[in-house]
What we know:
Number of helices: 19
Mean pLDDT: 96
Oligomer: single chain
Bound molecules: adenosine-5'-triphosphate, magnesium ion
Amino acid sequence: MRRNPFVIKDAVPPDKFFDRDEILSDFRRALDRGTRDFLWAFVAPLRFGKTSILLKLAAIADEYPDIIPVFLNCSEPLPVKRTLANLCSSLTKKFRVEREQVNVLWREYTRLVESRLYTLSEFFDKIWDVLESVDAHLMLFLDEFQELPEPLRQEVPSLQGLSDEQVFKVLRAVFGSPRARVGLVVSGSVIGKLLDALDVWNGRFLEFHLGPFDKESAIAMMRALFREGGLDVPDDVIEQIVEMCGAHPYYLQLMGHQIYELGSWDHESINLARERVWDAIFHYFYRLYSAVRARGSDYIKLLHMAARDELTYDVVAGFSDRLYLKLQELVRMGVIRMGERSYEIPDPLFKRYVQTIPTFGERPPSSIIICTDAEQEVAFAVHREGFAVLHVRYSRGPFDIYACPRDEKGIPRTTELVGIQVKFRSADVLYLREEEIRKILEAQKKYGVIPVIAFVRGRGLINFFAEVKTKYVFGEGSPSLRECLIKRGIKL
Ligand SMILES: Nc1ncnc2c1ncn2[C@@H]1O[C@H](COP(=O)(O)OP(=O)(O)OP(=O)(O)O)[C@@H](O)[C@H]1O
Ligand SMILES: [Mg+2]
């Protein structure tokens, strides 16, 4: 069997990097123009691809003969030593610098880590000397940049006792000196702390706030990875997966990984994959929501407003200072960011999660988080009618949503399962293929699921049909699930 082509652990290697085309071409263009003193920062909450993009940009920088890219995770110990090791190996390999010159740098390093009197700026002056002699430039790719002060203080005695802010000021002076031959491309997921670090540079960093992929690239990635793994998933299914994952790179990869493991993309496999993705991310969402909630009711109100797209700049302009500061705290937490027209929730699935809480509570079923817009529409409608919407782990056959009636105590009667196949069409006629019909009838017979087709034409436009046939006309069904079941003599 082939290896699973989806990457769900750590950053993607540069040759498996997708999307972010605009950033990559801006970077190349700047390099081609001769820019070397980059001050770029990638700001995003967890798993948006910060480390991946740093690695990709480092690989691009490496194509330029005068650049020495060095990638560092700043939360690990000995950052200067690791930088120097990388730098020296490039100096000897890429620039054929004499061993002796490199050894000089190592002796300087010994002084740096042994003496309180020898400063970082003096040490880097020696580095600039060597770089100047071969006309090379250092480009530092610093992941989790906000964490740098601690390991740096541990390593360099002259920095001991300084606050984080003071350490960053030292760095600004070292890297901002007219002799410096360095570019900085940094990233971080602890947004508040990272923004504090960048503030030391007085707005000179160019900030990139990573969001989900654009839809076309998301589709292209899934197509390429499924193809690489030899699984021939049709385009309409890929489009649905992209919608279910909100085109978020990590959720896409997780979903792809699961589907690939299952080896099939039929309804049951997709549902199982959704359930597993939900299991993997649910606790993170729950904790994030709880963290906001623990701060107080205003914060939760703001979060729900953001989920309903109500935090437009006009509205926020009318906020009291106190409410505005609370909003800024949420920005620093990374749960909200400044979008084009409004403050928004950057994580598309967390946004869906927050949207569903007033109706479904803090443990909403997977089927209304990792789902298409049409499925969510149907789930809400069915719930409003008093049915329980179930986790897709109830998956039996070719349905997207499973619902059941509740008993007098409100407990779902899962023995009476309604399987709903959701179809979105902008036209007013919907056709089912023979193959689809066969599968639906099979599931009805095998599991006793009551099959229903929900024909969705747009927001609030749903027709339910409790009959399985080849052609459905919008308007001939019922806007209510209960009513459509009663019409067919099914009473739940
Ligand atoms: N450009 C990309 N192309 C394909 N997959 C990506 C890309 N960027 C991110 N991913 C997916 O997201 C996952 C996380 O990527 P990465 O580690 O780069 O994110 P991060 O923002 O650095 O995360 P963290 O906040 O945990 O440090 C990867 O394992 C991969 O599944
Ligand atoms: Mg990372």
